[in-house]
Amino acid sequence: MECVRKTNQNTIDRYDLWVNSSGTKFDLHFRLLFFSLDIVIPDKQKRTVEIIRRLKRAYPDAHCALNHSTPFELLVATILSAQCTDERVNIVTATLFRKYRGPQDFADVSQEELEKDIHSTGFFRNKAKNIKAASQRLLEVYEGKIPEKMEEILTLGGVARKTANVVLGNAFGIASGVVVDTHVGRLSQRLGLTTNENAEKIEADLTKLVPKKHWIMFPHWMIFHGRQVCIARKPKCEICVLANICPSRKLFAPEL
Ligand code: SF4
Predict the structure, then answer these.
(1) DSSP, res 67
(2) Is the C-beta atom of 159 inside 6 A of ligand 1?
(3) What secondary structure does DSSP assign to 202-240, as a single string?
(4) Is the CB of 237 under 6 A from ligand 1?
(5) Residue 242: CB within 6 Å of ligand 1?
(6) Predicted TM-score of the model (pTM)
(7) Ligand 1 closest atom vs CA 240
(8) Cα(256) to centroid of ligand 1, in Å?
(9) pLDDT tens for residues 173-182?
(10) Which residues are catalytic?
(11) Would you say residue 4 has pLDDT above 90?
(12) Mean of the per-residue pLDDT values of the chain
């Protein structure tokens, strides 16, 4: 793998480093200097692979944080998670999934009652409407079961690509795309993997860079990192495992 050391805006020195399955090995000269240099791996694809390798090692227990026991429950939890924390959604669904056992119960309940049940997740009117619409369509067209194709899930009320990717990936193990939430979007920009703001465009950029076998786990690693280290307001670059390959480190922690 080739790395580039940026000594200033105009000068670039090249070094080689080798990566093997047991970790990253540097030549001695390079290793001594490693932590004091601003290192950029210029090939985005190679940098993405290195980011994945480090995040996978840092967060071996990364997983979907929304509690669910069926694909349908995951669909409902994901709809509720828009503009809401996963912790709050899990509090609400702990009661909700005891009261409503499946799409039929959600289709039968009145809009007003469902709104009350999910009120604390915010945007409760739209969310209640979408959950009821999705439940009704599942009953009418799919015998109450979540379809396993992206184009079919997208026909459920209020279900966009992010929700569809969450359900297909985490409930069925189908790599349909890369989930882009607020953490994945922010980190992808900071790490220089995209310059886009729009979630679908960011996803398109990531699907070109992230090997398909990592499409399901990549967002979990990024989300764990975004919550624990690369925090929105004040990223903790000083403890970040990606610090020496992150183009934003100089912006947030010029002293490092
Ligand atoms: S070095 Fe800083 S900005 Fe870059 S990924 Fe790590 S915490 Fe985020």
Answers:
(1) -
(2) no
(3) HHHHHHHHS-GGGTTHHHHHHHHHHHHTS-SSS--GGG-
(4) yes
(5) yes
(6) 0.82
(7) 6
(8) 11
(9) 999 999 999 9
(10) 162, 181
(11) no
(12) 87
